[in-house]
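Section 5.1 Outputs to date
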Amino acid sequence: MKSKLGTIAVDVIYDVVGAVLYTVGVSAFTAPNNIAPGGVTGLATIANALWGVPIGTVTFAVNIPLLFLALKMWGKVLTLKTLKSVAIMSAVIDILSVYMPRYEGDALLAAVFGGFCIGAGLGAIFSRDSTTGGTDIVAGYIQERLPHIQIGKVILLIDALVLALAAVAYKNIETFLYGVIAIFVTTKIMDAIIYGVDTGKVAFIISDKKAEIAAEVLKSMDRGCTFLEAKGAYSEKDRDVLMCAVKKRQFPQLKKIAYELDESAFLIVVNADEILGYGFKEYDDKDIG
C-alpha cells in the first residue's frame, strides 16, 4: 500500500513539474505570439485568442468526452492516469498563466523555446506512463476503426488541421509555419527525455569477411557483435549475418571498418531509440515506477 501511494505521489510530482514546463511554453511563448502548438492545446490557444476563454479550461472541457473513448480503448488504469494528468495540467495552466511573463518578440524564437518547454513538460508526464489525452485518444480511436492507417500519420494530420485552422483564425500563413517548428521541437525534446539523447544504430552486415570485421570491431571499438544464422533466398546457401549495435557517434567508424575490410559488404542500418545493456543505458526498474 505504501509503495503504491509512493508511486502515485511521484506521478503527481512529475505531472506538476511537467505542467509547469508546459505552461511556460504555452503561456510565455506560443500563445502570446499567435502560435498554435497542435492538438487540443492548439485549439484552446485559438479559442483563447478569439474569445478570451482560459486555455486550461478549454483543454479540460475538450478532453472530458474524449476520455470516455479512452476508457473503451485503454481501460480504467491508463484512463484514470490520463484524467489525473489532464486535470493537473489544465489547472496549472489557468493558475500560472495569470502571473506568467509574456514574450512577444521574434516569433521564431517563441516557436523554438515554446516547443522546447512543451516537449520537456510532455516528456516528464509521458515518462511516468501517463498521457495528456487529446490527439492521442482521437488518433487511437481512428486507428482502431481503420487499422490500416498508421497512428503517427493520424496525429500528424490532426496537427496539420489545427495549424491550418490557426492560420485562418489569425489570418496569417506564418502562424502555420511557426506552428510546424514548435511541433518539431516539441517532438524532438519529448523523445530525448523519454528515450534518452544517446540513441544508437543497429547494423546488419552481410560479408564474406564477417569474422575479420567482427574481430576489428571488438579490438578497435570495444563493441560486441552477434552472428545471426541466415539463408540466401537466391543462392539458397547458409551464411551468417553480423549484427552490431553502436552509439550514433560510433557508426562512421563501424562503416569505415566494414568497407575497408570488404568493399562489397552489404549493410542494413536501422535507428534504435533505446538500447539497454552493457555499454549502453542500464535497465532500471525505477524508470517504470
